Amino acid sequence: MKVAMFLAAALLSMSALADDMPTYKLELKDGVLKPARLQVPVNTKFRLEVSNTGKTPAEFESTQLRKEKVLAPGGTSSVVILPLAAGEYKFFDDFHMATAQGVIVAK
Amino acid sequence: MGQVLFIVWRESVEALLVVGILNAWMNQNPQGKAGKPYLWGGVALGIALAILLAVALFSASTLMAGSQDVFQTVMEFMASGLIVQMVLWMREHGRTLKKELESGLADNASSANWWGVTTLVAIAVAREGSETVVFLYGMLGSADGQTLLNMSGAALLGLGLAFLTFYVLQLGGKVLSWRLFFRLTEIMLLLLGASLFLAAVEKLISMEILPALIDPLWDSSALLDDMTPAGGVVASLTGYRAHPALMSLLAYLSFWAGVFGLFFWRKRRQAA
Description:
Chain A is mainly beta. Chain A has one helix at 2-14; strands spanning 23-29, 32-34, 37-40, 46-52, 58-62, 67-71, 76-81, 87-93, 101-106.
């Protein structure tokens, strides 16, 4: 447990956020993504503000972008995405897999 | 979902193994009958302890709401370590478990002191139960009450499957032996441990604590895309990545190197 505490404290002190990056909004609503296709600049760090405007829990997930965020109905959270090489990066709402498939395009 | 099912199933079988051995022994021994209430009391106590731990975990995570990523990363590392520790323990004690339990029981029966049984069972059940809680927590992360409810269906199914498995194993069938059961689930557990370890390392990359090095190293999404439902299951059970960063690959390899290193070291120590 002591190790865990120490690790947590070390991580906390290191995860300071820089605040001068572009921000993009993404809305998850009961299986509908707005937008489902998001264009971002290439090789630029950016912030993605994900909000759940639906009535059911949602989870923004992308194995490729190494992100996972669970959101309660009405919840909002932001994730910082590290600079991306040109290409398409898939993401989805893990709790509404059937319909909520999106893509982030770095150009 | 698949992970929840698997973990609950395997952990329940382990707890049932202890309870089942004791129960069978009590059924066969005339003085054993008296110990039954103590046995089931131990089961109840163990479950209560595990629930207590779950509550403690969730309150800890609410307290740390602002730093959920950090909390989850720590939990994932812990869960991964727990899996390895558990597999090692079963490897070393699995074969002699029955003998140890029964000789302990015989001592208890002759002195009519059953509290030892209660303690033993409570510890066994609480251990498996709390392991289940920690694993599930590491996997479900910040899921809220609603999601957890959905997951509990999978957990109940896992428990049902465990009873069925235990029953089949008790028959001492040729189809499924204890040996084979532990061998197979051991491999699956270690893969799951690797996957949790990798997930934790990737969170560190995400938080810019570790460099990604080369990202991505390759693209195998044409073979198996980790963003499809089937690929996602493989990814979460084994740690497969369609676009891994070099750091992820190094982390994955070092996990396995560590596991094999531990196995050989323990084996040598046991043989010595």
